[in-house]
Each structure stands twice: as C-alpha cells, then as structure tokens.
Amino acid sequence: MITTQSARELAHAAVQTALRAGATSAETIVFGNETALTRFANNRVHQNVASEDTELQVRAVIGDRIGVASTNRASGEGIRACCERAVDAARHSPADPDFPGLPAARPVEQPDRADATTLAFDATARATAVRAIVGECLERGLVAAGSVSTDHSVTAVANSLGVDAAMPTAMTRVTVLASGEDSASGWASFASRGAGGLDAAALGREAAELALRSAKPATLESGVYTVVLAPEAVADIAQFLGWYGAGAKTVAEGRSFMTGRLEQRLVSPLITLADDALDPSCPGLTFDYEGQPKQRTELIGRGVAIGPVTDSYWAVKTGRANTGHALPAPSRMGPIPLDLEFEAGDADVGAMIASVTRGVYVTRFHYVNISDPVRVELTGMTRDGTFLIENGALSHPVRNLRFTQSAIEALDATLAVSAARVRTGEDGRVLAPHLVLERFTFTGQTE
Amino acid sequence: MREFTESVLDAARAAGAEYADVRVLDTESRSLAVRNGATEGIESGASFGFGVRVITGGAWGFAASAEVTPEAAVRVARQAVAIAKASATVGAHRVSLADVAGFTDTWSGACVIDPLTVSTERCLEILLAADDAMRSVHGVSVARGEMSFLRSRKTFASTAGSFIEQSWVESSAGIVASAVAEGEAFNRSYPNSHGGGCYQGGWETVAALDLPGHAERVAREAVALLSAPECPSVTTTLILDGSQLALQVHESIGHPLELDRILGDEAAFAGTSWVAAGDLGSLHYGSDIVNVTADATIPGSLGSFGYDDEGVPAQRVPLVREGVLAGFLSSRESAAAIGLTSSGAMRADGWARTPLIRMTTVSLEPGDAGSLEELIADTKKGVYFETNDSWSIDDRRLNFQFGCEVAWEIENGRLGRMVRHPNYTGITPHFWGACDAVCSRDAWRVWGLDNCGKGEPMQVAHVAHGASPARFRDVQVGVGR
Q: Is the complex ipTM higher than 0.90?
C-alpha cells in the first residue's frame, strides 16, 4: 500500500498538475487502503477477501467555479487526465457566489494511527480467530457466523494554499453471531485500532452464552417501556443524530432537531454528545477532507443544543467557526460528525438493570431508518438478545420488537448513563455507554 | 485483455487453485447536482482494477488490485490462493459448484445516446429549469436536482472456459422539493425518491423524464404537506403506487429469496430469511394473484446483463407462481447445495469485491385490475400511498415498516384528503396474502434502485423491480402516531 509520505507527495504533485491544467486553486485528496475480511457462517469460512487501492480526488477551482474528479489510475497520465477532468468541470460549472475559496492551512495534529498488530493480522491470523470463535459455539451446540476484518489506510490532503496533512489509520473489527434452536441468538463484537487486545475465544463465548439465554423468546405486547440499551443500540441513535441533524447545512435548511432550538434544552441533562476525533482511542482522522483540524465539538451539552459541526463553506455561510468536519467535495450532505461520543455517566450496568421494575433490555438494533428527520423519529428492530426486565433482573427473552420512536424524546427520558463506554458503531467510530431510557415505544413484534 | 486474464488464471492454477475466475472492470462516471439555483457539485470518476476468486482446498479466497499488470496478475492470484488455504483450515466443508458451460461471448446494454458525451451545459439547463419551477412555488425551502451516469466495461474469464466481455451504461435523474416550517420538513420527489429514476440506458432515458414538466406539481405537493392532517392510525385498505410497491417487493420478496440468506451466509449482518430451502413448491407466499419473477433479460433495466459474475447466462425465473414459492435467486454454490442449477444472480459492485447473490429485475407481474384510477374507483374506503421515504425490515424479512412521502385518503372510490407522515407495517406472508388486486400491464413499469446494500465489506448493487399499483386489505397504517 502507498506510504504516508508517498501519499503526501502524490497529493502535492496533483495540486501542481491541476494548477498547470488551468485551475486558479486546487485541493487534492489521496486515499490509500488495504482491507481484508474473513466472513464465516454455519461454522465455516464462506468468504475471504483482500483488496488494495489508491484513489486520487481533485477539486479544481477557477474563480468561484468548482469541478471535482477522481481516479484510481495513479500513474502520471492518470493524474494528468484526472486533473484535466476536474478543471474542465470547473470551466463548465456555473459560478457559486457563496464559495469562500479553499481554506488556508492551519496547524493540524497528524498522529500515527496505524497499528502494527492490525498490519500483522493476516489471513492465517484471521482464520485462527475464526476457529476459536467457532469452537466456543460448537462446544455449546450453536452455530457461529460473523466476520474478522482489518483495514489500514493512508489519507493525505493538500491544497494550493499550503494545506498539507497526512496520516495513517487502522482498524480491526470482529463480529460474532451465535445462534441455535428455539430462536437462540447472541451477539458480541470488537473494534479497535489494534488487534492486540482481541480475545477471539472470549468473544465467541460471550455471544454463545447470550444466545443460550435468549432461546425460547416470548411475545410482548406493544407499548411504551423503560429500556436499557446496550452500546451498539446507543451508537445507532448517535449516528442518526449525527447524520441527520448535527451538520450546519441540515440546521440551516431547517431539517435538524437543532433548528431554532440552539441553546435550548432538548434532552435530559444527563446527556452530553460530542464529536471528538482527538480522543486518543479514536480510530479516525484528526483532520477533515479539506485538511482542516478537527475540533472537539459539543453537539449537546448537559441536554442543551450547543451547535452543529461545520466545514469551510458552511462555517462562512452560517457565521460559525470551522470545526473541521468537511466530507470530500462535493459534499451534498454538508459537514457531518463522524467520531461521536456520549460522555460517560456514573452508573454501573448491573445497577442500571437492577433499577428497572419492568422494562426491556436491548442488545442491539437491526435495520434502523429515519422516518421524520426533525424529530429524529427512528424505526427499526431489536435482535440477538432482547429480554424482559422484571424487578431489576432479566426475567426472560422476548421476540424481536419493532420500535418507532423519536430519538430526541427518548433521550429526554434518560434515567442513567453508564460509566463504562464501548467503542462501536460503523468502523468503531462511536464511543457509547449503556443508557436507561424511561419511555421507549415498541410498535410491533416479529413472528 | 485475454492475455492478462489468462495470466491470472494460469498463476492461480500454478499456485494450487482448483477453480479460478477473474473480472477486470473499467468504469467512468459523471454526476451533477443543483440546489436552489446553484451548482452543488459536478463530479467525474474513473476506476480500473481486477479481482480474482479461487477455490483451493475446497475453500474460497479472493484478492483484488488496481494494478492491472503482468506482475500483479501473478501476485494477486497467489494471494487469493493463500487466502483460500487459510479459509480451508476452518471446518471440513468443501465448496461444490453447480455446473456451468464455458462461454466466449460479448454483450452490450441498450444505449442510444452516450450520456458521457452530453455537454454539462445541457444537463444543467434541464436541472436548473426544474429547480426554477420548484422554487417558483411559494413555500418551497429547498429545491434539488441531480443526474448521474455510469459506463462500465467488464471482462470475465474462468477456468470453466469462459471469456466474456460486457459493456453497459446507466443513467439516473431526479428532483426533490422540500418544504419546511415550524419544526416540520417534507419532501416530494420525481420520478422517485433516493436518486430519482435509474435506468440501464443513455441520455434518452433522462431526457424522457421531463423533469421541468413535473417540478411545479411536486413543489405544490411538498408545500401542501405542511398543512395536511396526519395519516390516521387505523387498520384499513392500502393501495401502493408502483414505486413504493417496487421497494416492498425488494425488501419482502427479493431479499428473502436470496439463497445465500436462506442458507445462513448473511446471518450475522443482513440476516437470514423466514423462507426455508425446503419450502420450494409448497410455501404460500401470498394470495393467488401474486406472481413474481426474477428477470435479468429486460432491456433497459438496471437488473439486466448478459452473464452474471460467475459466467452464468442471464435468465428469467419464476419466484412466486399464483402465490406459491417457485424459485430462488441463487449462485453456483448455493444452487448446488440444494440440488439446483444457478439462477444467474451473482454480481459484485466493483472489481475490488467478490460477487454475492443480488437481485436482477424482481417483479410483481401485472394483474387485471386495470389502471390506478380504476383500482381507486373500485375501493370504497382506504388510503393510497406514493413514493418511498423510509424502510425497515427485520433480520428474517418478516416484520416490515415503510414510510412514504405522501398519501391520500380514499372515500367511495375517489381520492380525498392528502395526509402526511404516511407509514404502514405488516408481516410479509400476511401482507402478500392480503393482496387482492394488481393493476394491469399498461400501469406496469420497471423501477431501478441503485442503493441496495448487502454483504461485508458493504456492496451497493444496482437492481430493479417491475410493478404496477396494487391493493392490500387490512393493513395497519399510521404507526406510532
């Protein structure tokens, strides 16, 4: 795979090529990636893949006209052709009078977030992990499925105003689904920059034991229940809040839960939700796709709407500071927080369950989607370990439930936040605790 | 290219592959987007690379690279074999493939006007005209329009003796008007949500949409939703328009009949299926007017091709016949596992991904209920839903919930009040069992979907569904309201 230094050099060379092609200013992103993934199901590996690629993206600017082009042909001719396409697109683009110009360079932390243990976790190591997981499931009469994946990437951003940022990142991710007769289904997962902390057998055991507890699920009437959400379910809520309501464009267009409610209390004071790529455990980039430093940005602080994330365009357009959350241009979504974290509370998970007289414990959600962006009304299913809580204990498993619930209203009813948090969500980018929510609406159940 | 693919296959054989195939894919793309009279993005892309898939020791391995050179051919083939050898250390299962003949062939999708040769100015002229028309309606907050085009050239070769070259073009376009007021936001789209209309074909498919001609209507409907009453929470008769029905077919028939899901391969991620392989020929999937096919041969459909990514020829196969399960979407491996031949449904979303079972054009065949207007006239009381807004279904594809952009009440055979936030929920076999009318062929059309996610690493397939409006009895609508 391309090295960090080579990616940096390629990004700079492409900026010069774009300028020679006629751009008045230019920005380039180089993204090199090596990924491998072993999928298993029915106690065997059914898919085992590896790929490598390097992509160059060019944003060419001519005055206030912009064109974007990308290619994975990283040769001299490929780079030249890509730059010419970007310049040609800019020439034919109508002017955007709101375009503030490419951002100037700012000091950027560029930590080395590669990890030697992830780099070394090859097909043989992945198969060894799968064997350990499968062994734990077979020992309990269960069937194992899931994946073991590694990813290492290099991202470099440069522009003609001096932006120069590059860094490597890495991720090892493991998921385990243990299933068996009588609808037994249990889940466990691992996400970390490094593979060193992975105990595959323990992960397989965790999923298998949860599966055994979840067998013979009962029906449960639809209605409003107190819920204890495990971190993967909490991460889903965080990501929908981020994607649909925490960017400056969404807020400006009136489609966000924050629109018209900044500095007002939206949810329980127990909730603080921030985007923080600078957290040492974060696997993501510390700069955005304009090479601007990511700032820790509090979206909700002690229940109050603090403000959205921005990029260079939407910072100027909305009169806010640039928080460094640009996606690669042209970003129709606008700026988005990608490294969300709930602030830790002070509750013990066991005590959280013990505090619930009658409620539902949710291990994770499945296929969540948004039905009303302003209220962040979500619908989805539970899966792989849903339990009725009675008198402070998990009394018995229940069949998977459908919820239809505003995330804002749910978080407003927060009763407790756990002290322990888990790195989860897509690519391990969310740091999530357990939550107890007093009111959560289940609108159906599967058969 | 034949020299390159032969070198990959030779290297794989030399490294110990019992079977190997290689795909080389070269794509070019262009997209344009406008928002409130300004350009939101003009973008082009190019991607080139190859992937090699092998069976060694009875297990799969796959490796891919953007470096399409003789040296990489050998290196990547060996890498795939090494990965397969690691796969073989888990369990005693050995992959078995259904037979397929070797083919030497070429195939091209329909395309009259290459969209990548159409000027940026011409594309923007249409998008901005539609944008102007939407914003001319008082109350529209945001107007958006987009077009995208993709040209693909794919070469497939396998140790089964195939060498197949295919090329095709895809075009899509759509507009969205948004109305926002006092904590409410509503969208109306044309010709469909989630990117608009998606076709296998050239500029002619986009030009025929007449985006400006529909802009004012969708804008007026978006604004009208601001003051519309909520969709009632009731169990009633539901009529779905063709575009929403396409997604209903997609989620509750297409995905559950993917044989890899049925056999458990997708269990940990997308889930399994409520259907078992042994249900073939006996399971009542729906009422006796429910006929569903998977057809990879429909000209102009996103789900069409000459050969799938295992070199299996495109086919039309029945999935549900008069309400009874009649077939599956399958691969060579999954079909062999239950003693069938492949239905030719294996596709990857790019050179860097291994193929998965994907939908082709999975369609609810037309019925005899006439036009939409005739179907509404035949309905005493109910609701008519149009254009998907959100979707969710459980991990066995049983419990689903869909939201639409807009709905109208039906009273005594006529459309009544517009209602907002329409959604409905159901259980797959009960829902399809309650289908009592499907509109006729004149109301039937193919709806392309270019956002079907499946697999790890995630792959996004371009598929399609033929559908005409249909009616369902006793459906719960207005969920959570």
A: yes
